[in-house]
Write a structure and sequence with these properties.
Blueprint (H helix, E strand, L loop, with lengths): L1 H14 L8 H28 L1 H6 L2 H5 L6 H12 L5 H6 L5 H11 L4 H31 L4 H8 L4 H14 L4 H42 L7 H10 L1
Helix pairs in contact: 2-7, 2-11, 5-11, 7-8, 8-10, 9-10, 9-11, 10-11
């Protein structure tokens, strides 16, 4: 919630008229400051994943292999994004679930003022606002329709985001109260592994795979569009 409040207040200050408290100059300064602020996050993620590496080695293969299922979303989301007219933004938007670890990785790799960073930030903002509601609703439907074991669904709830993990587990706990403790344990362990192992997966697998698919699919299904004069002038001012 603090993140959501900060985004709303920042947007309000940027759009506020006639008293312009936050303008383009302040926004440009904030871009550089963001790189400084993201540094401790990257360090924290590195320390957390390093401390938890023994957990990754000790758990069974199922918890690790289910993490590879995240790669499947790239094959679905990237073509759709290209058909909608997105360009390099698709790499940031579709290479991960676009939460804090992935945000740090994309910004560190491509820079804050890149198309990839704008893509991951877009999904990050949308996920912050409606992500928990969506995933809770989705899990409720899947648990009611698909004949999957509750533990399998619990492992799928661990996507590397604490808020989304809690929102996803809640319907399962209410549907299977007798298994609540085990469901929470599987989901928590899976979430921790997704948080730690997901960093390496994003760097070593997801981003290279997304880059590869973008390189080959964009010339085929990518949409070309002309920017109007006003948009071109706006881009030139920012650059």
């Amino acid at each position: 919630m603090p993140l959501l409040y900060a985004m709303i207040i920042g947007l309000a200050l940027y759009l506020l008229k006639p008293f312009k408290i936050v303008g383009k100059k302040q926004s440009k300064v904030a871009q550089g400051a963001m790189l400084v602020f993201i540094g401790p996050l990257i360090a924290k993620l590195a320390i957390s994943s390093g401390q938890s590496i023994h957990i990754i080695l000790q758990v069974g293969p199922a918890l690790l292999l289910q993490e590879l299922g995240n790669l499947g979303t790239i094959f679905l989301a990237l073509p759709v994004a290209l058909l909608l007219g997105f360009k390099r933004e698709t790499i940031g938007m579709t290479s991960s679930i676009c939460r804090e670890p992935n945000l740090g990785i994309i910004i560190d790799k491509y820079g804050f003022d890149s198309d990839e960073a704008r893509g991951v930030l877009t999904v990050f903002v949308i996920g912050t606002m409606i992500g928990t509601i969506f995933i809770s609703f989705l899990v409720s439907i899947i648990a009611s329709v698909l004949p999957l074991h509750p533990y399998a669904m619990a492992m799928a709830c661990g996507i590397g985001s604490a808020s989304m993990n809690a929102a996803a587990v809640s319907p399962l706990v209410h549907m299977y109260p007798a298994l609540a403790t085990n469901i929470e344990a599987f989901a928590g362990c899976s979430n921790l592994i997704s948080f730690c192992f997901g960093i390496y997966e994003c760097i070593l697998l997801s981003i290279p795979l997304t880059e590869f698919l973008y390189k080959h699919l964009e010339p085929i299904i990518g949409r070309e569009y002309e920017k109007d004069d006003e948009t071109k002038e706006e881009v030139q001012k920012w650059n």
